[in-house]
Write a structure and sequence with these properties.
About 50% of the residues lie in helices and about 5% in strands. The protein is built from 15 helices and 5 strands. Helix 9 links the parallel strand 4 and strand 5. Helix 3 crosses helix 14 and helix 11 runs parallel beside helix 13.
Length: about 325
């Protein structure tokens, strides 16, 4: 019996340093599952990081290594997925350039995140061509491998719809080359950081995957809970508690329901509730910490994995770009490498 062809997936992460719990539940945990059922290309994307770190680009290499450590420790497997560094596959840049020639400027200007990020990040000048074209580079990343599925949260859905529009325009102009990537919406729990706001590196409130058990206890124990619970005897509402967002992501449902009932009836205190999620996190990331320590001590092995993955990606990308040049009439007989 013929095997069903696995659908192709592409997704990537900007290298901004070590990953936190929000990155894990929002993407990485799902990627580890997807590599069992799909043909996956996962890319660390330094050129995207450059759009905001152009004044300090030397940090990007170290940040890339941090992300690579977290990916491998979390269970992304080079035997099951192609793990690549985007900037090591120059075809990403070539396809980005060609797509930019056919993409109407208003399509990019209407991307919600363009203005949102400019307002959020006040300490950097993001009014650049590179930042405006960020979604176009993202489109090139995806379709270079003819990805059929892109796992994203709702906040990125607009970017994938833009990619679909660009694919339709390209195919209409030059011929059917690229499949329209489908959105695989992933449930992204909104995790609160240590100050109760959304977990974010920029807020300085993140709990990192690499944090030690002691760090986890120190960060979560003093977290603010539901403001209704001024005293131990006051009942609370778990859905209004920042700490309970962590329970929803890491504590089994039966235990979570038990804790929620205890909170609403004041039969348990906040410290008791916090201890449950602290121990759940320490247990869940025990193997992760061991693997990360190993890879930290063997950096050459990490770079080899990503060098080999990038080489595999280049082979796929090269074939795609040969097809692109041919349909566009840019396949000049000049002895291309």
């Amino acid at each position: 019996m013929a095997q069903t062809k696995k659908k192709i997936v592409f997704s990537g992460m900007r290298p901004t340093g070590a990953l936190h719990l929000g990155n894990y539940v929002g993407a990485l945990r799902n990627w580890v599952k997807l590599q069992e059922t799909h043909r996956c290309f996962f890319g660390i994307v330094p050129w995207h990081a450059l759009s905001s770190e152009y004044l300090n680009p030397k940090v990007i290499k170290d940040f890339t290594f941090e992300v690579a450590l977290d990916w491998l420790a979390a269970g992304l497997d080079p035997q099951k997925s192609v793990l690549l560094i985007q900037s090591e596959v120059k075809e990403h840049a070539e396809l980005h350039l060609l797509l930019s020639m056919i993409t109407p400027l208003p399509w990019l200007e209407r991307v919600p995140t363009f203005k949102e990020q400019q307002q959020e990040i006040q300490d950097k000048d993001l009014n650049t061509y590179g930042f405006l074209g960020y979604p176009m580079l993202q489109t090139a990343d995806i379709i270079l491998y003819k990805a059929e599925v892109v796992p994203v949260g709702e906040d990125q859905a607009f970017h994938i719809e833009l990619a679909r529009e660009v694919v339709r325009r390209f195919n209409r102009f030059y011929g059917e080359v690229f499949p329209e990537p489908q959105i695989l919406l992933t449930e992204v729990p909104k995790l609160a950081g240590t100050d109760g706001r959304k977990m974010s590196k920029s807020y300085g409130n993140a709990i990192y995957l690499k944090d030690s058990p002691e760090d986890i206890r120190k960060k979560i124990s003093p977290m603010v809970t539901d403001t209704r619970r001024k005293r131990r005897t006051d009942p609370g509402e778990p859905d209004d508690c920042p700490v309970f967002t962590l329970h929803k992501a890491f504590v089994p449902e039966a235990k979570r329901q038990e804790l929620a009932a205890g909170c609403r009836t004041a039969s348990i205190g906040c410290l008791e509730c916090k201890k449950v999620v602290i121990e759940a996190l320490i247990t869940e990331f025990e193997t992760f910490r061991q693997k990360r320590t190993y890879y930290e001590q063997h950096p050459d092995e990490v770079w080899t994995i990503f060098n080999e993955g990038s080489a595999l990606a280049r082979e796929v990308a090269r074939k795609t770009m040969e097809e692109v040049r041919q349909v566009m009439g840019l396949d000049f007989p000049t002895g291309r490498r």
